[in-house]
Amino acid sequence: MCPGDTQYFSVQAVDGSTYTWDMDYSLELASYTTPAINQIYVRAKIDFTGGYVYLTISNACGSANRIQFYVSKGSSCRTGYSYTYSPNPANNELTVNYNETPATSNPANNETSTQNQTADNTGQSTTVSPAANNKTMKSFSAELYNDKGKAIRSGKNGPGNKIVFNTQDIPNGNYFLHIIDGKEVTKKQVIIQH
Q1: pLDDT of res. 105
Q2: CA angle, 81 as apex, 110 and 69 as ends, to 5°?
Q3: Which one of 75, 85, 120, 133 counts the least CB within 10 Å of its CB?
Q4: Which residues of 12-47 are buried (b: 16+ CB within 10 A; e: fewer)?
Q5: Euclidean distance between CA atoms 157 and 96, whole angstroms
Q6: Element housing 54 (H / E)
Q7: CA gap 114, 159 in Å, rounded
């Protein structure tokens, strides 16, 4: 679960029982529920790093049973940025973009920048475009693999916020894009279709 995500919890309903839900500070109620309801939706707050949802089930005799659910922060959660790639399917080129979320981007610095050409380790040209706000740049790299696991394109964003791979000479088929951010690797399937 990542900050802002919603999670659904439920238990088997038992006639005559009441259900009291509670959660720790890093979670909040995402939809209204009453004590007689055996389900709840919770949302992770912006500072979410993991937390507990608690359920107390009481019956007519006064007996109570307390259950706790641990909710962990997903390893793929990113704070303040994300990566996108397009188009898919790709024809002549494939672009990988670093995107800041509105909370961390700085639209006041709206400078026009030029593009630089760099050669990747396969001898292919990769276009790198410097971003408008160099103070918030994130360094990342990307690799494109064929179905046999061989890297056929690779590049780094350098001072820019995107990597563009030339795909004109790559045969039609399924490929695998690896976006490398430090020790984290995001893997996506890409189709090349001319």
Answers
A1: 33
A2: 155
A3: 75
A4: eeeeebbbebebeebbeeeeebeeeebebebbbeee
A5: 9
A6: strand 50-58
A7: 11
pTM: 0.48
Q: How far apart are CA 85 and CA 47, in angstroms?
A: 27
What's the order of all strands across the beta sheet hosting 50-58?
18-23, 50-58, 64-72
Beta pairing, strands 173-181 & 184-192 = antiparallel
In the chain, the amino acid numbered 186 is T
> Which residue type, as a one-letter code, is found at position 95?
T
Q: What amino acid is encoded at 77 in this protein?
A: C
Contacts of 162 (CB under 8 A, 6+ apart): 95, 96, 97, 98, 128, 129
Residue 134 belongs to what H/E stretch?
A: none
Cα(59)–Cα(57) distance, integer angstroms: 7
- What CATH number is given for 81-192 in this structure? 2.60.40.3080
Instruction: Tell me the H-state helices in 27-145.
Output: none
Q: Look up tokens 């359920």; give the residue.
A: 55
Q: How far is CA 191 from CA 31, 51, 68, 168, 172, in A?
A: 39, 39, 43, 13, 7
Q: Note the pLDDT tens digit of each residue in 41-81.
A: 888 887 788 888 888 888 888 878 888 788 877 666 765 66
State pLDDT tens for residues 14-39.
888 888 888 888 888 876 555 457 77
Q: Where are the domains of the chain?
A: 6-72, 81-192
Give Cα 182 distance to the centre of its chain: 15
